[in-house]
Records
---
Amino acid sequence: MPSVNHASDPQDAEFLLEHPNAQSIHALKDQTKADFGDFLVVSPYAFQPHLLDLRTLEYSQNLLARALTLLKPVRTDYATAPYHESFNWASVIDHLRFLNEEAGHFWSWQHFYIVVFRSQVPPTTNRVELGELDEKAHAEATQSGGLLKYWFGKPDENGRNLATCIWRKQEDARPGSIGPGHKAATRATSSMYTEWKIERLAIVIEDGVSKWSIVPWEDFTDQES
């Protein structure tokens, strides 16, 4: 392959716990433009073993992963706002279209799997421990393959936050959530969060990146069946 340089039981854990030390971790984003060759920074963790190996992806997935490096919130209440209105998805898709056209690639209709983890962290939670759990879980998810993007925000004044994963496909999310680090993070959910909720979505990108939509996963799978 050529190099192209949108409340569930926590036991069903296809998400990653958001890192509480968001301010310091987000500073690592300054490194995302560094040249890692076949590896891409796709999360707040700009170092191994957290980098996406582009060689494991099909060409279209490679393009989307690169476009997703632009993903950022466009409103301050993203923790509670509708997911599809909370990020600069139009800009991401515009960049994907640009990359696709620049490469002379034909983009065929595809869908990708999104997991959204909304939470509320009480003041009593050990933020350092929570951050360590998140980092280990992310490393495992990255090594299992197919995680194209991981983003988390900073808790608001009420401790509410949002974290999101964009996966190549739903099947990739399951092996990424069964490692010891992820299981430890899942066990800690009930004690470290006041509440949590998981949303499962699909982003559908049509031929030629001409149109796109974010829909509930269950609606998408109903249409497919």
Note: The helical segments are 22-26, 59-67, 89-102, 127-144, 170-173, 180-192, 217-224.
---
Amino acid sequence: MTPPTKSVAELRAAGKQTAKQAGGSTVAAFFELNKDAIKAVLPQHMTPDRMLKIALRAMRTTPKLMNCTLDSLFGAVITCAQLGLEPNTPQGHIYLIPFENRRKGVTEVQVVIGYKGLLDLARRSGEIETIAARVAYKGDDFSIEYGTTDSITHKPKMEGDVGKPLGVYAVAKLKGGGYQFEWMSVAQVNEIRDGSQGYKTAVRYNKTDTPWVSNWEEMARKTVIRRLCKYLPMSIELATAAALDGRAEKGMDQGLEHVLDGDFMVLPEDATDEASGDQAAENGEQDADASSPQIESKPEQAMPMPTVDERQAERVETDSSATAPKSAAQPKAARPASTTASAPPPSPTEDAIPDLPADDDTDTGSLFSE
């Protein structure tokens, strides 16, 4: 174990070490050094000390994270906190996955969004009343009608053999009125599966522990939810999750270590288009098993973001304005009207997603609990 570092330069250098090399005391010192950066990006209900507890618990419940660089682990945990999703728990919201970055020659942490995490973020947008995804089987009474009034009817068979899956659909009820739904056949889902890096790795090495084999229904739900979300009103959190998930599904570096710099975040060139659904995502999937072959990461581009000082100043200004006496009531801005206009259907190869562990694989408990 590396002796505890003391100087700022040593702690910065420790960020390039793995958590195992740095040791527990250095991990704690590393978080202490970056408290200002943490405060600038964390939601107000989270504290740097709580973030440290989350990181340490994640490493205990998922030991393979100890082989990842400390700065990428730091960035991944902050990202989870910003999204308000608990990592590596039976809730299945978000996962911290070891990622072999061949270009850098290191193992880094990537965040992979679970389908339940996408549902949670979609509900939190404030524009969606309900959202759900279901699998339709041959024994069910199921029908879809497209036209001037789109509709979907699903009456599941309650007894006996339901037969093989027909496909999967997701439907959202918008607060502004109306519904938006998306349907994918088994063939469409399997086309996404067959193009995923994780599934191809499992086939190549005769692995059966990939979620595409052990939990096809869960993966199918996430596939169709991801496609539906492109046509829904998006919060910042949902758009961020979509962009990060887009990089993970392509086997690309998410650049989470740059959270330490406090002045930019690495995103793909088409992050905005990915989030809005204007550009189809390429196939590719990150296997949750760290023993998978290394994936070549692609060069990233940095998008300028506010510096830590700017964000701290903005927070101080916001706090000051909140305590200042109000001279007159300000009229509320009108909420944009929601739309249910049908968007052109995406291509069947656009929604490849990363493999996720099954929701009940490991009982890790709540990492956000004290």
Note: The radius of gyration is 22 Å.
